[in-house]
Amino acid sequence: MLRAFLAVEVGEDFKRQVVLVQDDLRRRLTREVSKAVRIAWVQGPSMHLTVKFLGDIDESLIEPMRRAISDAIQRHRPVFIPLERIGAFPHPREPRVLWIGPQTKWNESEEAKRLAVLHRMVEDCCASLGCAIDDRPFFPHLTLARVKEGAHEVGRLLATSGVMDRPLSLGTLAVESIALIKSDLKPTGPLYTKLWQVGVGGGGGG
Fold this sequence. Notes:
206 residues, alpha+beta, Cyclic Phosphodiesterase, Chain: A, 4-stranded antiparallel beta sheet, 4 helices, 30% helix, globular
């Protein structure tokens, strides 16, 4: 068995831009939070857009999953996601995850609808191989940090700093391929290993 997830990898230039936003957010929060707050910041090299978390899967599924997803998405055009704001799950007042992603209104766009179709294709492929289905709406984002303790205090600081109201202009993240990534949990953080990559529209595989 191996712990794995499906994701869109982020290019190095894009990662550097996102890390600058992350560093600014970190400075704004950490200079005012109490010692009761504990925030785990995602390391720049580990940043990715999760398409589906698989959990523990049998290694025998690696190749069948590659073939199924490759066949399903080869006729789907790439999707482009604007990174325009900092957000929080489940709510800014009590954040557990801080992220960067599109504006809420983007969810109604044609591009968002095409991404939902692509995501459903991936879900169906995984379901055909016995993986659990996630019926929640898919909202694309890059995780910047996870609030382990002190969510209420972090929420208060987010509100007073105004950081979530500032528009960002980092350009668009291209969904041109999907990778299967193995995650090994280490004391220093997760270690990611790409097992395969298949291209959306038949390109970008490897």
